[in-house]
Write a structure and sequence with these properties.
about 375 residues, mainly beta, Methylamine Dehydrogenase, Chain H, four-stranded antiparallel sheet, about 50% strand, 6-blade_b-propeller_TolB-like, WD40 repeat domain-containing protein, signal
């Protein structure tokens, strides 16, 4: 038996040697042949599997479209701004959280009725908001762990006007906002650095002919911004701005189909073009790539590896994996909804969905655990 095994190994080695020698007759060439072990062959790649729905959680009937779902404060906890009507009192708004199995709301803290435009940081630790006072507006950051309020900027209505465009960087370090000079109407961008506890202002240059700014997304390095603009002709565009000293200069502009934009990293960003084309732009080489077609709405996971999206004239939510310039799997994970909001959980394993329920035009099978109109629900993946 040992002799046979030795003979097989010698024959295999001789065969490989013959193949390599025959390759030399066609010119010099270097090749690397990798023979994976049995253990490597059976190692499962968790990132390569398609999306499979494990559970669909319907949020309580008390949660309606009048409430505002702010996002995830933990992998299994959603936080929102809910309206509460008290006897002999006017309607108040409370920050409340709801955790798995998403049946009961728990109060976090009351919200001043003069505070609006709340934005939850992606890490779920802070909420920013604008509070109106007699003298003007103040920008406040609220810590959800201890309830402390920190004023990071104040605006005198006679000199400056705070524009309601608050946005966190995806790593929750930077908070950006827009404000204008009351006299010159010059627009500026403010950035609050939570790590350094510093606020800096930058003038916007070259934006005079681009239209009105409707949203801002700041990169994780705090040096680049994506602006969505609307012209007088109602055409929309995305504008890339770069900090240059005390100013923000225009570096790139392209027509879009709306306000949906997202950073993939500090060098690449994604936006929805006209006719539903989802583009990826790499500013290092000015390369523009098409990721998907006919997209109506999209949302990337916090690690930027996965995407949830809906398609025009279809009533399904799809989930896929971003790999290079491609979206893999593209699995339908829910039918019968026109989503207006989709938010991935911090562990990238659940999707909060809000939108209007519609009857499926694609499948004859009945829907399972379909929420009522405008009632949020959560899809948990396996």
């Amino acid at each position: 038996m040992m002799t046979n095994k030795r003979f097989i190994r010698m024959s295999t080695a001789l065969l490989i040697l013959i193949v390599l020698m025959s390759g030399c007759t066609h010119g010099q060439r270097s090749e690397t042949i990798v023979i994976p072990s049995t253990e490597e062959n059976h190692t499962s790649d968790q990132g390569s599997r398609s999306f499979q729905v494990k559970t669909i959680y319907r949020l309580p009937a008390s949660v309606t479209d009048n409430d505002e779902m702010l996002g995830w404060s933990a992998p299994d906890t959603v936080i929102g701004l809910f309206k509460i009507v008290r006897s002999s009192e006017r309607m108040k708004r409370n920050l409340q959280r709801i955790s798995i199995p998403y049946e009961n709301l728990t109060n976090v803290q009351n919200v001043d009725i003069n505070t609006h435009s709340l934005e939850l940081s992606p890490d779920g630790k802070y909420i920013s908001g604008i509070t109106k006072t007699q003298d003007g507006d103040s920008l406040t950051v609220i810590s959800l762990s201890d309830g402390q309020h920190k004023e990071v900027a104040r605006f005198n209505s006679r000199e400056q006007l705070l524009v309601q465009k608050l946005s966190w960087s995806s790593d929750s370090r930077y908070l950006s906002y827009l404000f204008t000079d009351s006299n010159s109407r010059q627009e500026s961008l403010g950035i609050y650095d939570t790590d350094a506890d510093i606020t800096k202002d930058y003038h916007l240059t070259g934006f005079e002919n681009t239209g009105n700014i409707t949203s801002v997304k700041i990169s994780d390095d705090g040096r680049s911004m994506l602006f969505t603009m609307v012209q007088s002709s109602r055409k929309s565009s995305v504008v890339l701005g770069i900090i240059n000293g005390s100013e923000v200069d225009v570096q790139y502009e392209h027509q879009t189909g709306g306000e949906q934009i997202a950073w993939l990293n500090n060098e690449q960003f994604v936006y929805l073009g006209t006719e539903g084309t989802l583009y990826e732009y790499d500013r290092r080489n000015s390369e523009l790539s098409v990721l998907l077609e006919n997209v109506e709405r999209f949302e990337f996971s916090q690690n930027r590896k996965y995407i949830a999206y809906s398609l025009n004239e279809k009533d399904s939510i799809f989930a896929g994996k971003l790999q290079g310039k491609n979206i893999l799997y593209e699995e339908p994970v829910y039918h019968g909804i026109n989503p207006s909001q989709m938010l991935w959980s911090p562990d990238n394993n659940s999707l909060l969905v809000n939108g209007e329920k519609i009857y499926s035009r694609l499948s004859r099978t009945p829907m399972v655990a379909s929420p009522s109109d405008h009632q949020p629900f959560i899809i948990k993946f396996q």
